[in-house]
Amino acid sequence: MAGLSLYFEDGHDDLDDFGFDDYATDCDGIRITAFLDAGQDNLTPLGRLEKYAFSDNTFNRQIVARGLLDVLREFSDNENDFISVMETIARMSEDGEPTVRSELMEQVPNIAMFLHESRPNFPAAFSRYLVPIVVRYLTDPNNQVRKTSQAALLVLLEQGLISKGDMETKVCPVLLDLTEPSSDDDYKIEAVAIMCKVVTMLSKDTVEHLLLPRFCDLCSDARLFQVRKVCAGNFGEFCSIVGQEATEKLLMPKFFNLCSDSLWGIRKACAECFMTVSNSTSPEVRRSKLSPLFINLISDQSRWVRQAAFQSLGRFISTFANPSSTGLHFREDGALPEVPRCTSD
After folding, report:
1. 3-class DSSP string for 183-252
2. How many Cβ atoms are within 10 Å of 176's Cβ, its own excluded?
3. Cβ 29 vs Cβ 57: under 8 Å
């Protein structure tokens, strides 16, 4: 509740409408859903929700958006009331005021967790009402709304709340649209970053069939260095997920190009992820192709690239070790577990 007082700087005249007259104006004790309480009107609680959710007063709509989780708690016991509230949320998501949309999106992860814990039909309700909002806000014209949606998407994925079907049919298609060559620059840069973040939370099959071809194209984006830099910084994650065959066949040519990019920041990013890339290749590719490439980076004209390469040197060398003789094995994620060794007399 801290920080709610910020919304009241120009809104004190509206306090009585919400039934907030018994609270101090610093709002430390405000119950957000006080607007549902019976007042001077003859409306039902759902009617009052409708009244304030679509009020002409932006402040009223912001308060409703911030209190949606508490609203759902009050109406979740009755199925018809629950559906009415979810329909109201869907309509509120189309609000013309960016602050209302951003406020609503901030509540989506909390709402999703509540539904997951309390609703037997969580997957259907979440997929029908909330996922479309998250996806639509990824293309919102307002930067803050987009950022809020991107953060919400990552939280939902980390919690395992978005189904594979929704990722493949709703989220990934939008990311692919936003990373088209003709896409707006700002949207494209943001979409590449979010694509590279979500890739670690998706299955190998989804990444390989939906996102890998586009990632390869983005690595060669000649116009936007920011796109190439994001790709270089996340190159190792893609290699780890798709495995050796796809890495050597599709990704290695792109990695060679990025390692010789005209911008030192991109070459530096390649040096930093070199071990992860190396772990995803065969010993022969490691020896014949990656070793000469690493020598180029360690003697790069930029001292920042050389420094990053020297810092990665030990990790890169470790990928040549034979687990049967060292008793150690570097996994694709860079972890170093011990492996059993057979000893002879």
Report:
1. CCHHHHHHHHHHHHHHHHHCCHHHHHHHHHHHHHHHHCCCCCHHHHHHHHHCHHHHHHHHHHHHHHHHHH
2. 16
3. no
Q: In this structure, are residues 133 and 108 in contact, taking their beta carbons and an 8 Å threshold?
A: yes
CA atoms of 317 and 295, how far apart (whole Å): 12
- Give the three-class secondary structure for 333: coil
Percent with pLDDT over 70 in the chain: 81
Question: Which amino acid is present at 23?
Answer: Y
Q: Which of 297, 319, 293 is nearest to 306 (CA)?
A: 297
What's the CA gap between 165 and 199, in Å, rounded?
15
| Residue at token pair 């969580």 | 122
pLDDT tier at 43 (50, 70, 90 boundaries)? confident
Distance CA 172, CA 169 (A): 7
What span, in angstroms and rounded, lies between the C-alpha atoms of 84 and 212?
40
SS3 of residue 60 by DSSP? helix
| Adjacent-strand bridge partners of 338 | 328
The candidate with the shortest Cα–Cα distance to 219, out of 237, 235, 198, 204, is 235
Q: How far apart are the first and last CA of the chain?
A: 70
Is the full-model pTM beyond 0.90?
no
188, 194, 198, 200 alpha-carbon torsion, rounded to 10° = 90
Cβ-Cβ contacts under 8 Å for 238 (sequence gap 6 or more): 196, 199, 207, 212, 215, 251
Q: Are 257 and 287 in contact (CB under 8 A)?
A: no
Q: What is the pLDDT of residue 20?
A: 34
Q: What is the C-alpha separation between 100 and 93, in angstroms, rounded?
A: 8
Nearest of 102, 126, 128, 100 to residue 114 by alpha carbon: 126
Q: At what angle do helices 264-272 and 225-233 cross, to 10 degrees?
A: 10
